[in-house]
Amino acid sequence: MKLIAGLALAASTCLAQADGAHDWTKSRWGPDDQIGSANLMTPERVKAASSLVTTGKVYSLGMIVGSDTPAFPPRSLSVTVLQPNQISNSGLGNNAFTYNDDIFMGWLGIGPQIDGLGHAGVDHVYYNGHKDSDFAKAAGLTELGLHNLPGLVGRGVLLDMAKFYGVDMVEEGKAYTADDVKAAAAKQGVELREGDVVLFNSNWMNLLDGANPDPKRFGAAEPGLGVSGAEYLAELGVMAVGADTWGMEVVPAEKEGEAFRAHQILQPENGIYILENMDTRELAKDEAYEFLFVLGQARLKGAVQMIINPIAIR
Amino acid sequence: MKLIAGLALAASTCLAQADGAHDWTKSRWGPDDQIGSANLMTPERVKAASSLVTTGKVYSLGMIVGSDTPAFPPRSLSVTVLQPNQISNSGLGNNAFTYNDDIFMGWLGIGPQIDGLGHAGVDHVYYNGHKDSDFAKAAGLTELGLHNLPGLVGRGVLLDMAKFYGVDMVEEGKAYTADDVKAAAAKQGVELREGDVVLFNSNWMNLLDGANPDPKRFGAAEPGLGVSGAEYLAELGVMAVGADTWGMEVVPAEKEGEAFRAHQILQPENGIYILENMDTRELAKDEAYEFLFVLGQARLKGAVQMIINPIAIR
Amino acid sequence: MKLIAGLALAASTCLAQADGAHDWTKSRWGPDDQIGSANLMTPERVKAASSLVTTGKVYSLGMIVGSDTPAFPPRSLSVTVLQPNQISNSGLGNNAFTYNDDIFMGWLGIGPQIDGLGHAGVDHVYYNGHKDSDFAKAAGLTELGLHNLPGLVGRGVLLDMAKFYGVDMVEEGKAYTADDVKAAAAKQGVELREGDVVLFNSNWMNLLDGANPDPKRFGAAEPGLGVSGAEYLAELGVMAVGADTWGMEVVPAEKEGEAFRAHQILQPENGIYILENMDTRELAKDEAYEFLFVLGQARLKGAVQMIINPIAIR
Amino acid sequence: MKLIAGLALAASTCLAQADGAHDWTKSRWGPDDQIGSANLMTPERVKAASSLVTTGKVYSLGMIVGSDTPAFPPRSLSVTVLQPNQISNSGLGNNAFTYNDDIFMGWLGIGPQIDGLGHAGVDHVYYNGHKDSDFAKAAGLTELGLHNLPGLVGRGVLLDMAKFYGVDMVEEGKAYTADDVKAAAAKQGVELREGDVVLFNSNWMNLLDGANPDPKRFGAAEPGLGVSGAEYLAELGVMAVGADTWGMEVVPAEKEGEAFRAHQILQPENGIYILENMDTRELAKDEAYEFLFVLGQARLKGAVQMIINPIAIR
User: Could you tell me if the ipTM is greater than 0.90?
Assistant: First the structure.
């Protein structure tokens, strides 16, 4: 009880805390903790989440990503395919083993992605009080690297905000407030719980592959989680928050002059993972509001973000 | 019955087939099929696999991968962390949003990886008869790209070959024959079935992080699946075959002059996925021989391989 | 005399030569030669070229190149600037040494470039008879790599084809024939000699930075050297041929069905270097038809091409 | 006279200047100047330098650079060669145009390199008073980018410090003082002048390719320019300073706690270019103390550094 109150107060950029207030720079999982809310991935919760599988339908939440996927500037990527040392020959061995390989050049924060706990900070201070000057080395993060995260498995909950607001697609600048989040869950008849992976559907991805694609609009702004919504989910203690937009939270921000405040509430202040560009539309169409959520991101040493493809099963 | 016989015969590099024999260049899932054995991922099988979750324990099968991970030459990779446009400032907004980003330069076939169906061929012919000259474009695969694969979810089976052979670590050059595979399964009391993801444990990764690491030996050769073992698993119709080695199959090959013949049997000839550098040791230690296997690889457009971290849950 | 006749005959794609004909797969500089026409860079010629400096004016022939520079697909590039390990600090030492670094990801054949002798071949055969399967390894060329080339210094000659044809900008598809080349030189009163670096000006770059930029047209086709022009320059024994276009030679080709035939005449068949995207407009404006030409390309081991900035001095 | 005195005083890290002192954050070439000492590249000097060519011998000062070249951590590079879309075919056209291409992934500050004026700063302040937060954008430098530099042409002077000190190879930690520089020039009978490109030879590169290579020692420290030497050259107004070491200046620094102070004196405070890993040994062997120096670095937009191969001609 005290803890929850403390977390609520912690939703502030003030590093120096009043007596009695929770100091967000100290993780509830101890000074050595590297994985934050992934500590909530207990066998009990995983087992309970697995029991949500009733139809066996598999949902691939990672959209297809390529060099034309809208990206936060100056991020870009390319994939190049080559056939090493197989010119005018039949490859290796007398069994003619030929093969293709591929090279990736670019940024890991493009398309469907997880923001590791080393991604977002409050004035250079990150989860568990780590200062970027201490751990954000050019050769890779020495703390909070995504390789520390074994994966995320838990109960997934979809909140279909387009349906909740009664629109085909939620507009940019629309903030999901705490009241909206609660009301959407209630309307769907689904309870939000500690340890959940909460995904928001806005149908924003229709701007990429719908009838009238508008990638420029897609990347210029977005609907998404508001500050009170983020505070509510942080209080609740969810494991991850995802959305079908490039930045998960509302852009432009509710309060002029603020930028990515929900990121700060979730990540540095509460150790909660953020999942972006999650294609939740099939889940929404099926009214699949509860499911087993499984994410196994590549464990690149020292990485900040990672292109992902979480799997929902129900 | 007829199909199985046909598949057995198909285990040959001969492209021109005798009358009546199965022509492996034609997929059993039709001429337009892009995903091969992933077609076996039916709701029924997924549901059944989910019921294998009994303890809720989560296993992260993707080893941590970095620039020092042994790689098939000339593959290499690097991760670079940077703070775009945040020099001597407090980032974005009056809430001081600071952030780290990262860049990846290198090959996607390093460390824990999935070989997509565009990776391995027989004399320039790949799964479903695609010729590399037609689809292996420098800008990305136009057929068989890994973006087509939604993910792999199914029943995972671990065969602990180190335990089966009664050794701490299986030696390089040791081939898992069809008889060995069957006997290992029988000894463990586990049945291999169509649609399974079969993982082999040899403890070969002890050479990377054990008491006496020897990365050079790790990369120079390996124990692994033999030709008859691959034929058996292909006949059975498994969905994927993985191992705790860099190349999954035995190196050097059983027959002198051959190279990666098991890759050919599984991939081009039968559309079966290959998973390499899977850290199966914890599963082996727990004698976790059956489990829910979930892989969601990043869906990079046109990619051949991908660094992965499959999740096993039991 | 005999040699020149031989070279003329060699301008054929026929690998098997009639008796008495010159076999272009054997370099005139011997079987071990790696640098072709750069052998013409004798002290005498260099000294003579240096004497062409009369005004001391320096011309930078390498256009500025960035991610928006038109490139032969699927080539692309990016430059990323970062400040390694200098977050919220004053860098290294008590003297506060701060610094920027940069990363390049992309292809070396973009913008102003030299084609090394390992770039262009005739049906997989390259300069001095090297087969690509033997030397074009994924980890870098093992023969003909650009690191072998110390640089190119010599007499530069500009042929202003726009002026010769009496147009502001030469149109795409216009081929410089042997007769045109000779006539243009004669009109300018400049003699072409063995060992020269011959540069062609068409003002094609006006499509990039002129009053009405049209980068699409720039990259879609181009005016340039024709087959007879290439044969003539090869007979003459020039050291390098450059132009203010992305591909140096005329596109589309004079003869339907041919592609980059002038490249083959110059490179594999005669060991002559090709320079592309050379900004020759200032030289043309100044009627600077003879000058000291100095190119020092970065000597990257095993590289095929290189982004360059040759210097002309007169 | 006044100017020179001012420059001497400017050799201080103090940003706030006493009345009357020269303020190094204001370039002598005006507030809009982007190229610093390259302004000294006048036609007169270029013409005079060209007259130094007497033998026509060409020296390639850029050492060969590859993935095994010692680099300042965490810099690395790779070159990958591929044959785009030429599998089992004869390339483009009925003339069978086959070709190799190459990809570079890595840092531009490796091997023989030029430090652009955007490289080295004093507590985040760079040449002409630019603050890194203003111009050092992730997508490329918006001020002081190396693309602004047309090249460097001028009188090159070699000071053979190994010969001057009477040793085969100068040891690490040996600082070239102002007196040493003057005495070495005098001993060689060569005068140092404004606008010169001054190169120092120590034979340090013998550690890379000599009889007993020791790349670790090569990269761990180095002999080089000391603080007084840098101040002297800055007063003199040279155009560039180069050396046959990875960092040009002495490491470890003369004064404990200082790091790359000579870089600061030359670059931000005086706009002088720095050239590293210049292979000066052949010049030294030939006692070629005066020569025409020509550098044309690739003009990558927004780049900080560049791998180069300057040409010396005498």
Answer: yes
